[in-house]
Amino acid sequence: MGEAAAGLWRHRLGLAGWLVPAAVGIFVFGFGQELWSRYLPEYLRFLGASAFIVGAFGALEDLLDAAYAYPGGWLSDRLGTGRALLLFAGLTVAGFGVYFVWRSILGVFVGVFLVMAWKSLGLPATFALIAEELSGSQRVVGFTVQSILRRLPIVIAPPLGGLLIQKLGMSGGMGVGFAISIVLALAMLFVLRWAFQRKRFVKSRPLTPTLSRGERGKMPLDPTLKRLLFADILIRLCEGLPDVFLVVWAIEVLHLSPSQFGLATSALMTTAILSYFPAAALARHVEKKPFVLLTFLFFTLFPLAVVLSRSFGQLLAAYVVGGLREVGEPARKALIVDLSAPQAPGRTVGLYYSVRGFAVAGAAAVGGALWTIRPSLTFYAAASLGLLGTLFAAFKLPWRPAALAAQEIQ
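^ thats the sequence. predicted structure below, dont judge the formating
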């Protein structure tokens, strides 16, 4: 009876099959990485990097996010998600090791090629898992739970990382953070490997069927998905221009402490998590477009709220606005999966995120160039792009995509 009840709750929370160890991995890897990742731009400044170099690092992260998305989806469809996730986890552990032993600007740039593996290569695999294990409105719940597990570490870890930096200095605090990441990631890699060996959570063959030779060469996107992609690109440009400079703004412009910045980040993620469940519950019964539009609107307002902040209290309020950016994220992700090619969900999601990533890859570098002119210019330019994306989505996204209506008729 107890096992049946546990199984029912796992299903309700979108934690079926391999999604269970994958969800644990999302939390553990996220916690270790969030101890220090938010402080990397300031760490680069500590190592002697200019604003341009910091912007270039952010651009490289975006570029890798784009470059890794489609190969991640291809490997997920080809190897099966279990094997693919093990590979991505191992690469990320190696990246943490590079950061720990090579304390230089070049070391940060080299290590990021490996560190991005779990997040960027593994993203399409996570989408493919949810597409395989869940269906219909349950997918919104699945993405809600996955999003919460991805963001809970951001509530807890950045303030702890900020305290480490305050107590041990920038170099010592970051070093301890890197070491903790390695220990946690190795433990999680062992758990994933154990689950894989038992074959309890992994199917014996890839989750998606093999494509014909003709299908391999063409991966068309649904027309509604293309429009969502275009709006999403504008919104991610809005996010990308100031993203790596948020910590610089807080510490160097507002003269806040690292722990205060960490608390603001926690406020952002706490707000995001609190918004997920009511939004997901409503999204199961109404169309997804209103939630997507709300998300895009708050993406637009966040840089304005930050640039107008003049104190820690005002920055906290701005970061609450930033947390509301996530109100429609589960609905947006579920819409992407709903409109993906059923024979290759990993590759469709990979293609979507790859195109989006390449389109915004230079955003941080542009933000760095604007910062050198005037720091506030980076934030105002971001808000302008966000407004364009929100208006495009409002007028061009249909309330009920034709592909979804056709699926319901069938």
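The chain has a mean pLDDT of 81.
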